[in-house]
């Protein structure tokens, strides 16, 4: 794919269309953002990778208070054209990060799973909303890492490395991306959009599959809503 990145309004239009369908409520492009019902919006962040299929997205719960209601994340898509890569990136974001954010809005379990502060499968001390788990790859074992991610809990293993490193006491977005194959692997944790070295090391140390042939990746997103002691 050698096409350039689509215009911002095109990207925002795809996001608005997808969110309109997911929520059953209209989103539209206005004022340089995808504007949703009430105070909701999605803003394009600075593209830190420069790739045509890469997006940095800021989901803003309250446009009047963006400093403490913004959940940042990044996602990459692939495809034969720039439009296909964009659509894939938005689809992956909506199925992982978006599912956790939509669940925060409705809080009925229809989009994502909830883990209380004392749940052994959650993040100790925090109420967590666990978004969907998606995966992709090539070869016979292309679903291996996604399948492992569905069958194993990762939050309790990441919590010791992440605790005490957050800059605010609510709405902490944790991106989990890992996998690889053919002699290379990736284990990446981003907290509110920023790479988290200790969390990434903890993820790399887990016993998820490393395929001998082909590649396999998984991605998910967890929204830590608030400290249970707060």
Task: Describe this structure as you would to a colleague.
InterPro entries: DUF6348. It holds the Pfam family DUF6348. By secondary structure, the chain is of the alpha+beta class. The protein folds into two domains: 8-106, no CATH class; 113-227, no CATH class. 30% of the residues lie in helices and 31% in strands. It has six helices and twelve strands. The chain has helices at residues 8-23, 66-69, 82-106, 144-151, 155-162, 197-204; strands at residues 28-30, 33-35, 41-44, 54-60, 70-76, 113-115, 126-130, 134-138, 170-181, 184-191, 194-195, 215-227. The strands form two sheets. Strands 6, 7, 8, 9, 10, 11 and 12 form a seven-stranded antiparallel β-sheet that branches. Strand 10 and strand 11 form a beta hairpin. Helix 1 crosses helix 3 (82-106) and helix 5 packs antiparallel against helix 6. The radius of gyration is 17 Å and the shape is globular.
Question: What separation lies between the terminal Cα atoms?
Answer: 48 Å
**Strand-and-helix sequence, N→C?**
HEEEEHEHEEEHHEEEHE
* Mean pLDDT across residues: 93
Sketch the major β-sheet. 7 strands, antiparallel
**DSSP strand content:** 25-35%
Structural class: alpha+beta
Instruction: Name the overall outline.
Output: globular
Low-confidence stretches: none
Number of strands: 12
Number of domains: 2
Helix content: 25-40%
Can you count the helices?
6
Rg estimate, integer Å = 17 Å
Short synopsis of the structure:
The chain is of the alpha+beta class.
